[in-house]
């Protein structure tokens, strides 16, 4: 904790100065770029940086199963890059991006990451969505010393010099939500339903330890279904039999849609039966249908309906660029943070060199984040608030609760493993 | 897990569980029927079956959007129109596929597998380009949502009953077409001996095209019905394809009765096991049982006796 608190005042001052000139950036004459520091000073390791341009990579699935989720991240990253360029770029250089398609295939992700780092010499990569793709890319960015900005909320248990995790790790996301619903609903018993892979299993393990060991309450059922499972009637009957106070879900993908449709069809009324999900954002509701999930609670760090000034501007800009109808989920917002955090870190380090960025990351603050002020922890995750929203029929969330303070990221939680 | 419940509560849970099994059975029959016709009668391994289903789902989505904005008064009955359109759209695309692709590959079953797999990728990407990568939400009329309380404690999902009714209807219709109509006789004749059927004057090419179209059309109706219980996205078809082949192969490829019997046994096993253990384990045990039975009976549950 103390590590991150050291350089704050210094960073904040520089940031404020940066922010103050932002409105005028567009007015600056072309010659302003000449004032940028010489390339030889800010790029000592041969990255793709020229006197006027710096190249970064965007690496997501534009095709395949995961395109459903990753499209939003790609859009957010392009928006951030465009805004940064409009405000004068990074160290006086415009950001140029090279987009590669991971095609929902994990070896392809690794290959494309290598291509971006070795052939294109990108200064950083914004990318990956599933933990599987990140695990495939991790050895590559470590071997070739790249910098990856990873947007998804995930299971934790990882930390790397070469990765900044802009989404929440599991304890950050889950614990506050469970505490809130326990207090709000007087819940005594929980029923877990998840898709069968690493993220739901790890998240549920953390949730179970928290519920049983810290809150002294009961978990009455824990169920996993293969990815793509579409029939949930049996488990819904089991829920009817066990009558849990809270259904806690981390079902993903197409299964999600089937699950909520069948829950509604089975007569389980989410305005009476409390359901807390950590996997449904505004993106997913598009497919599920608002009327099928209205009343469910979701806990994560961002909702599109947040009222703060940053978010109103962000949602406006996003709609202007990608159409009024696009919705913005938690991960999309986290993806938007990637380019900005990288820019701020580069400016703090005064260099594009990966080693210097990795060292300078701790303590970097971004007060302009749509979710509100965030700061990079020395463990390369973000300090952020956790919020609980209730789904409405129009596919948005009413934000009912947010933690008073930023929650510390704790990727290796003691007592939860 | 049954400690704290009265007998009547347990009773109603078991009744609802029975319904859950029947609904799963209907879903399996509905998705496998089209493939059973194509694979069973024509021997074509149609890997794009799931995409024909999703085409039906997208047609339903388009119909829903259109009716909602132009004819809101008719919204409560649009679903029937949507199913008919889904049948026509998927059936037409099926016949086109047969004409352009399948008919050149009848003697090469493994090549049809690759060709239809390629087709499924093309269709997926086409859906993605046209409708976007994200899933779309199909709005249903109010009466199709929620559940029907039969007694105080027994509730049955309305969409489940709807799928069951639809399955019965389509199965009866298909059985009538195949076993009672003149065209059905031609289909069976072509299956049993293509050369001889051609020799007695049956236009085998036309029969093939219509059979393939019928199979794809039924897939379209299934996809349309599944918008009630599942997701509609470019790759949603992939969720069904494995189960579909499982049902058809386990039932014995050339037999409609076999398809129904196999759908029944798989769905009941799956749904009962799911009630007593976790979903992933239930799937593992179901699959192991199927593998074991297929080792003993490679031809599937029911096999058509033909002279080879």
UniProtKB/TrEMBL annotation, chain A:
<feature type="signal peptide">
    <location>
        <begin position="1"/>
        <end position="34"/>
    </location>
</feature>
<dbReference type="InterPro" id="IPR028082">
    <property type="entry name" value="Peripla_BP_I"/>
</dbReference>
<dbReference type="InterPro" id="IPR006311">
    <property type="entry name" value="TAT_signal"/>
</dbReference>
<keyword id="KW-0732">Signal</keyword>
<protein>
    <submittedName>
        <fullName>Urea ABC transporter substrate-binding protein</fullName>
    </submittedName>
</protein>
<dbReference type="InterPro" id="IPR017777">
    <property type="entry name" value="ABC_urea-bd_UrtA"/>
</dbReference>
<dbReference type="Pfam" id="PF13433">
    <property type="entry name" value="Peripla_BP_5"/>
</dbReference>
TrEMBL record, chain B:
<protein>
    <submittedName>
        <fullName>Branched-chain amino acid ABC transporter permease</fullName>
    </submittedName>
</protein>
<feature type="transmembrane region" description="Helical">
    <location>
        <begin position="275"/>
        <end position="296"/>
    </location>
</feature>
<comment type="similarity">
    <text>Belongs to the binding-protein-dependent transport system permease family. LivHM subfamily.</text>
</comment>
<feature type="transmembrane region" description="Helical">
    <location>
        <begin position="239"/>
        <end position="263"/>
    </location>
</feature>
<dbReference type="Pfam" id="PF02653">
    <property type="entry name" value="BPD_transp_2"/>
</dbReference>
<feature type="transmembrane region" description="Helical">
    <location>
        <begin position="158"/>
        <end position="179"/>
    </location>
</feature>
<keyword id="KW-0812">Transmembrane</keyword>
<dbReference type="InterPro" id="IPR001851">
    <property type="entry name" value="ABC_transp_permease"/>
</dbReference>
<keyword id="KW-0472">Membrane</keyword>
<keyword id="KW-0813">Transport</keyword>
<keyword id="KW-1133">Transmembrane helix</keyword>
<keyword id="KW-1003">Cell membrane</keyword>
<dbReference type="GO" id="GO:0022857">
    <property type="term" value="F:transmembrane transporter activity"/>
</dbReference>
<dbReference type="GO" id="GO:0005886">
    <property type="term" value="C:plasma membrane"/>
</dbReference>
<feature type="transmembrane region" description="Helical">
    <location>
        <begin position="12"/>
        <end position="40"/>
    </location>
</feature>
<feature type="transmembrane region" description="Helical">
    <location>
        <begin position="212"/>
        <end position="233"/>
    </location>
</feature>
<dbReference type="InterPro" id="IPR017779">
    <property type="entry name" value="ABC_UrtB_bac"/>
</dbReference>
<feature type="transmembrane region" description="Helical">
    <location>
        <begin position="52"/>
        <end position="71"/>
    </location>
</feature>
<dbReference type="GO" id="GO:0006865">
    <property type="term" value="P:amino acid transport"/>
</dbReference>
<dbReference type="InterPro" id="IPR052157">
    <property type="entry name" value="BCAA_transport_permease"/>
</dbReference>
<feature type="transmembrane region" description="Helical">
    <location>
        <begin position="77"/>
        <end position="101"/>
    </location>
</feature>
<keyword id="KW-0029">Amino-acid transport</keyword>
